[in-house]
Amino acid sequence: EAEVAQSPRYKITEKSQAVAFWCDPISGHATLYWYRQILGQGPELLVQFQDESVVDDSQLPKDRFSAERLKGVDSTLKIQPAELGDSAMYLCASSFLGLAGDEQYFGPGTRLTVT
Amino acid sequence: EDQVTQSPEALRLQEGESSSLNCSYTVSGLRGLFWYRQDPGKGPEFLFTLYSAGEEKEKERLKATLTKKESFLHITAPKPEDSATYLCAASFQGGSEKLVFGKGTKLTVNP
Fold it and tell me: Would you state the pLDDT for residue B26?
């Protein structure tokens, strides 16, 4: 069964350091999403890609966060510099077309701890 | 503002004790209502999509229903392995196709 892959699964970093997360969506899925989930909350969208183009990054803190999907397949989310408040689960999801109503399939997530 | 609210925040059941989880939404032009299951430390697992009021979907011991203002996830004769957090999310007209999630209901089923 096709799955969304993410790495690393866990990351511990000191504040002010740079950190990067990688995501490989389900093959053939045009739309890729990055979400942040704080413990006890639902996921919140950070950025949405349609192929290699950004569709929605309105909730991405652009002073420290960046995301790219250069060839329209896998994607990288970067934080520089990391802050204590960035500790959270970072989830990647993909959907076939990205139309409203399409199912989104999530990866296992990266648990980030900033010390 | 488009919102999704889930209740209760936590629910404890005995094995075999049926119950329902609630998801109320205030979105303009609902395009889809989604239910996910999330185990601790893992990503959400897709369960159901509902598109219109009156629609119902079933999977094993779970049944999801939708009205114009809310959705219910009914759990019949639950087992301990059904213990998880259940997330509800909605997509809506007029914006991007993003999902707006509720905070989830943490379900614990005791043997």
Answer: 87
